[in-house]
Amino acid sequence: MVDNSFVSHLSFVIVSDAILGECVDQIGDTNLHPPTKRDRWESHGWRLDGYGYNEDYSQYEVEVLAGLNKNMKGQGPLWLPHEFRVESGGVSASKSDEWNSPTAYHFHNFFMSGEEIRFKYSTYGHANSKALVKSLRHIHADGDLMLAVMCALGNHTEKTESSFDSIAGTSRPIYYLNKEARQARHNLWQDIVRRDEEKYGQSKNDE
């Protein structure tokens, strides 16, 4: 996000940052990582119980690996994109202080205009078909974008910090430690929101 509003409850979200290409479906070797059984046409969707879902490979090892007459115990199927984001592979780590301070922050792309934001939300994986005509606050009304707009307008909620210095704990995003850079980005974001509100008002445009 382009502003300096911080959503404290997002500090601990687990998101896979990297995965080896040889482990990804359509890239890795299926001879080394035989396909598993899934809930959509056997090759799409979520892994079935016992075939890798929730890290349970009991049936996969018996029915898939054992039948190959190879020493493949411990091998697993290749990962689909949605799986290495949400299925497995992360540990939520925090500092051992009184606040359980986060060890990292997750930032979205930086934008220089409201139109760049609209382009992203109208074309990305969870595209909003009305993104080009909605006000910014309503493009992602239940998430980060609404919170960022509220921060720019000075309308802080229980989900946002009132200022950079109000963040509890001992961790701060390194990018924003420079006060001048922090204020410059916040001023830019306020300008983007102001221009957007002048042009689109608070329009939902759900019709």
Structural summary, described in words:
Residues 1-13 have low confidence and may be disordered. The chain has two domains: 8-14 and 93-200, no CATH class; 21-86, no CATH class. Helix content is 28%, strand content 3%. The chain is built from six helices and two strands; from the N terminus they run ββαααααα. Strands 1-2 form a two-stranded antiparallel ribbon. It has helices at 58-65, 83-86, 114-123, 136-139, 144-152, 179-200, and strands at residues 38-40, 44-47. With 207 residues, it is mainly alpha-helical.
Shape: elongated
Q: Which strands sit side by side, in order, in the main sheet?
A: 1-2
Number of domains: 2
H and E string: EEHHHHHH
Number of strands: 2
Q: Number of helical runs?
A: 6
Weakly predicted, low-confidence segments: 1-13
Distance between the termini: 28 Å
Q: What is the rounded Rg?
A: 22 Å
Strand content: under 5%
Average pLDDT over all residues: 80
Structural class: mainly alpha
Overall helicity: 25-40%
Largest sheet: 2 strands, antiparallel
